[in-house]
Amino acid sequence: MRQRHIGRFAAVAVAIALAVAGCSSSSSTSGGGSTPAASGGSSGSCDVSLGFFGALTGQYANLGVNIYDGVKLAIDQHNKKNPGCQVGLVKYDSQGSPDQAPALAQQAINNPKVVGIVGPAFSGESKAADPLFAQAGLTTITPSATNPKLADNGWKTFFRILGNDNAQGPAAAKYITNVLKATKVFVVDDASEYGKGLADVVRKSLGSAVVGNDTVQSGQTDFSATVTKIKASGADAVYYGGYYPEAGLLVKQMRGAGVTATFVSDDGSKDPGFIQAAGGKDANGSILTCPCLPPDKAGGTFFADFKAAYGQEPGTYAAEGFDAANVFLAGIDAGKVTRADLLSFVASYKGQGVTKQISFDSKGEVSQVSVWAYKVENGQIVADQVIN
Amino acid sequence: MKFLIDNFWTLTSTGLTQGAIYALIALGYTLVYGVLQLINFAHSEVFMVGSFFAMWTLNALASHEGHAGALLIIGLLVLAGIAAMIGSGITALFVEFIAYRPLRRRNAPRLVFLISAIGASIAISEAFGIFISRNILPVPQLVQPKVVLTLFGSQIYNMQVIIVAASIVMMVGLDQFIRRTRLGRGVRAVAQDQDTAALMGVNKDRVIALTFLLGGLMAGGAALLYTQQFGLTRFNVGFLLGIKAFTAAVLGGIGNLRGALLGGLVLGLAENYGSALVGSQWRDVVAFVLLIVILMFRPTGILGESLGKARA
Known about the structure:
The complex is a heterodimer of chains A (388) and B (312).
Chain A: H1 2-28, H2 36-39, E1 49-54, H3 61-81, E2 88-93, H4 101-110, E3 114-118, H5 123-136, E4 139-142, E5 158-160, H6 165-179, E6 185-189, H7 193-206, E7 210-215, H8 224-233, E8 237-241, H9 244-256, E9 262-265, H10 272-277, E10 287-290, H11 302-310, H12 318-333, H13 339-347, E11 351-352, E12 357-358, E13 371-377, E14 380-387
Parallel strand pairs in A: 1-2, 1-3, 3-4, 4-5, 6-7, 6-8, 8-9, 9-10
Antiparallel strand pairs in A: 10-13, 11-12, 13-14
Helix pairs in contact in A: 3-12, 4-5, 6-7, 12-13
Chain B: H1 2-6, H2 8-36, H3 43-61, H4 70-105, H5 110-131, E1 137-138, E2 147-151, E3 154-157, H6 158-180, H7 182-192, H8 194-199, H9 204-230, E4 232-233, H10 237-252, H11 257-278, H12 283-297
Antiparallel strand pairs in B: 1-4, 2-3
Helix pairs in contact in B: 2-6, 2-9, 2-10, 2-11, 3-4, 3-5, 3-9, 3-10, 4-5, 4-9, 6-7, 6-9, 7-9, 10-11, 11-12
């Protein structure tokens, strides 16, 4: 009897320990959760918050965390400069999953303090969440969702602060044919809204140079069947549309099977996680395209500020997230603290961001677009050239 | 179709390799099912923890650049294998003590065990994600890939041979342990009839813990082989593999050790042939349609005999 009680206490104690550990470490990922900005509470005359919508945990978390850090930097800088106007930041962690997106979007909509959303970060979750935001009149600026079709739905609240895949896809194709001089290209995608959408644009742009196609699964680790197909096709370049975990594993298993074709992938793969997944040296020589500026080329003091705040260089889309948050903050400072006012402010916004000159067309697309090619050299992702 | 024929042997060898890993994990599902008639959904995390132990051992002792010297490599692999088995074994026992035993003492309904196992699975996986990393973590691969033989124009790599051979040795060892030893007889007795076995003087709880431990040891072996084949691990590495291994166990006849081997190999091959025949996006469709078709004609799986009824 006594032993049973001890067992029960032990189980409860373990559960509590796990719960506490979970809480404490989730707040530490926000980079010092004790500041008023992170806790979501706000004080002063403008009692409003921005929402961040994207993956902060789960398998694609790296991409979301980069953006979140950029957004948080913008808000922290704003709040420091404006002691009378403390803007809050609320996290909506979608784990990158379209299934979780609608419920999270509803949460954001139901929070009257949230006047603008930076995100959703991925295309799949955007497709699921944006209709709700449009209905509720809650403005979203995505710093990273690049599927072109997102802009075609007539969502008045949709804005995109970077070039879409109709710019990135042809640019990647151009790089493959003009710079790599590849004539036989094998195209693989991960069947996601983003990966398949982008790979299809690349397929169309490459035309007859495509010698084979295949599809992999998110979360898959054994790509032997795909690698066998690539090898049999004799391709001299492989294009992968998808995210970094699978991209890294695919290139590693290609090299393991003796395939030497140049590996080309996209902004979803442009993360150190790609090199890690490839086990280091197998990633070398890979090309990654991205409609994002190399962070060290960002304007102003962004690069130095980010490094000072987080002790590391800004990752992919951190600068875009920073810009998106600043568009909202400019509106809030101009007194546009209702959702409707902020929406019309963003639609007519014109200003210089750290990544580009920002203004949006009637579909919510940013007017200035550039696509960069990055190269993996000695285990580092370095800027190669802008693709014109 | 032409692609399948041209690359038949490559697809076969990679399919068997993957299937052997499925089979080793499937043993854990089948053992626990054989004894308790419950599916231990936390077994995927037993595998995951093993792969982390293998990674930590190799990171501490081996270099990423590879080693010369066959003896050194074998020694390191054995050490990593033991570490992985310890990690997996402890996790399996932990799951039994936390998620199963307290419920068994209270005669909880069967469904409750499933939910507590799923809970344990998610808790362990997320705890690793939070405390260690959510990234893919590289593991040093000690065996340099080398083509050992060319079969009908397709290259067979050394690692593939090692994986298939090592899994078969482990499975035969387990099979003999269950069939021939005193402890194995206890496992079979509890599998046949728990209460009668208890009346005959078998310590039921100890046998159940032993069953979890055996499944954990096999998962640890699978974890080492997996890290050496793919050179990585991750906090959620067990999820997809666990589902596939569970499928393999059902396919071969759940509760049947030899069935787990057969089921794993058949599933590995079916996935590869299926994706070659109709495209990789159909891989799981082919594999699971095959599962349904086989279960339609043989509802107890291919071999279909349960652990308890296995003859000594």
